[in-house]
C-alpha cells in the first residue's frame, strides 16, 4: 500500500516537472518577426578585407525580407544570388551580406548598409 | 634549522619592500598608459548618433576585428607577436556623412619593437597581394587594397610607442574616398599618432 502511494507521488512529481519545463520553454522562447539588431564587419578574408553581416536576436526560421528600395527582387543581382539563398552563420543568427552586386552596387550611403532594412522570422530563446 | 626572530623580521621586511616596488612599478605603468579609447577616432566624428557606432574593447578571439585568432592565414611574425597584444579597442560603423564604412582598430603591445614588427608584417602582407602604397606621411603608411567586389579598402598603419593604429575605410575606389580617408586620418586624436 505504502509502495503504491510512493509510485503515485513519483508520477505526480514527474508530471509537474514536465509541465514546468514546457511552461519555461513557452515563457523564454518564441518566434518573432524582427529586423536585424546590428550591421557590421563579421570576419576578415584575407585578413585585410572586411566581410559584412546583419545580426539578428535569434536563429533564422523563415521569411528573410529586404525592406529597402526594390525589396527582395533587388537582391537577385548580388554575387550570392537572391536574398533567400544568402548564407546564415553563427547558429543562423547572422546573415552574411554579399559585397559583389549588392553593397558596392550602389553608392554606399544607401539602405543596403542598414540593419533595420533586413527582416526575418527568428526563433528567440 | 630554526630562524632567529631578527632574520624573520628582515625576511618579512624585504618581502614587503619587493611587493611595494612591484606595486609602484605597476601603478606607474598604468598611469602613464593612455586609455586606447582616447587614442581611437571618436564615434561622434562618424555619426551624429554615436549609438550607431560600435565602440569598445575587443578580444583576441573576436572574428570581427582583423588581428583575431579566428582570422585565417594571418602572416607569420616571430614568436607569434601578431596576436600577442595586451589589449585592443575598436570603433566601427557606417559613416553616413561621408558614405563609407570605417573601422579603427587600436592595439597595445608590450613594447615598441613588437609594434614595428607587426606593422611591417601588415604592410608586407597587403603590398604582396597587389596592395598599393599610397603614401607614408600623416604619421604612418597608407595602402589601398582592391577587394573582391572591386571595392577600395584603404588602410592607414600607424605606430606610436607600443601602440599599433589601424584605420580602414571601405568604399568605392575613387579620389573622393581617398580624400575622405585622409580626412579621417587627420581626425585621429591630436598628438597621439601624428608624428
Question: What do you see in this structure?
Answer:
- The complex is a heterodimer of chains A (125) and B (195).
- By secondary structure, chain A is of the alpha+beta class.
- Chain A has one domain.
- Chain A is built from three helices and seven strands; from the N terminus they run αββββαββαβ.
- Chain B is of the alpha+beta class and 195 residues long.
- Chain B has five helices and seven strands; from the N terminus they run H-H-H-E-E-E-H-E-E-E-E-H.
- Chain B has a seven-stranded antiparallel beta sheet with strand order 1-2-3-7-6-5-4, sandwiched between helices.
- Classes of the chains: A alpha+beta (125), B alpha+beta (195).
Layout of strands and helices, then pairs:
The complex is a heterodimer of chains A (125) and B (195).
Chain A: H1 2-28, E1 30-35, E2 38-44, E3 50-55, E4 59-66, H2 71-74, E5 88-89, E6 94-97, H3 99-103, E7 118-124
Chain B: H1 5-32, H2 36-39, H3 43-46, E1 54-57, E2 87-95, E3 100-108, H4 112-128, E4 132-135, E5 140-146, E6 152-160, E7 163-171, H5 175-186
List keywords for this structure.
heterodimer, A: 125 residues, alpha+beta, 4-stranded antiparallel beta sheet, 3-stranded antiparallel beta sheet, B: 195 residues, 7-stranded antiparallel beta sheet, 5 helices, 33% helix, 26% strand, elongated
Amino acid at each position: 500500500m505504502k509502495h503504491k502511494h510512493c509510485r503515485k507521488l513519483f508520477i505526480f512529481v514527474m508530471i509537474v516537472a514536465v509541465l514546468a519545463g514546457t511552461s519555461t520553454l513557452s515563457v523564454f522562447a518564441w518566434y518573432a518577426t524582427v529586423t536585424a539588431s546590428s550591421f557590421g564587419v563579421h570576419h576578415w578574408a584575407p585578413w585585410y578585407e572586411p566581410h559584412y553581416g546583419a545580426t539578428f536576436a535569434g536563429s533564422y526560421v523563415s521569411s528573410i525580407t529586404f525592406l529597402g528600395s526594390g525589396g527582395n527582387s533587388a537582391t537577385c543581382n548580388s554575387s550570392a544570388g537572391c536574398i533567400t539563398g544568402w548564407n546564415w552563420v553563427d547558429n543562423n543568427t547572422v546573415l552574411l551580406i554579399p559585397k559583389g552586386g549588392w553593397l558596392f552596387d550602389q553608392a554606399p550611403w544607401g539602405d543596403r548598409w542598414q540593419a533595420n532594412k533586413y527582416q526575418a522570422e527568428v526563433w528567440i530563446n | 634549522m630554526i630562524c632567529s626572530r631578527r632574520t624573520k623580521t628582515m625576511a618579512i621586511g624585504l618581502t614587503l619592500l619587493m611587493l611595494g616596488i612591484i606595486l609602484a612599478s605597476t601603478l606607474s605603468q598604468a598611469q602613464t598608459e593612455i586609455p586606447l579609447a582616447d587614442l581611437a577616432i571618436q564615434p561622434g566624428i562618424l555619426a551624429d548618433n554615436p549609438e550607431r557606432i560600435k565602440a569598445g574593447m575587443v578580444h583576441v578571439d573576436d572574428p570581427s576585428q582583423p588581428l583575431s585568432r579566428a582570422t585565417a592565414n594571418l602572416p607569420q611574425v616571430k614568436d607569434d607577436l601578431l596576436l600577442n597584444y595586451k589589449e585592443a579597442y575598436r570603433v566601427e560603423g557606417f559613416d553616413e556623412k561621408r558614405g563609407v564604412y570605417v573601422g579603427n582598430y587600436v592595439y597595445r603591445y608590450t613594447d615598441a619593437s613588437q609594434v614595428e614588427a607587426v606593422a611591417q608584417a601588415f604592410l608586407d602582407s597587403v603590398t604582396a597581394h597587389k596592395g598599393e602604397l599610397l603614401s607614408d606621411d600623416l604619421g604612418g603608411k597608407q595602402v589601398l587594397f582592391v577587394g573582391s567586389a572591386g571595392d577600395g579598402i584603404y588602410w592607414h598603419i600607424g605606430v606610436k610607442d607600443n601602440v599599433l593604429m589601424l584605420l580602414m575605410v571601405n568604399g568605392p575606389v575613387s579620389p573622393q574616398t581617398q580624400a575622405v580617408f585622409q580626412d579621417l586620418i587627420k581626425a585621429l586624436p591630436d598628438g597621439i599618432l601624428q608624428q
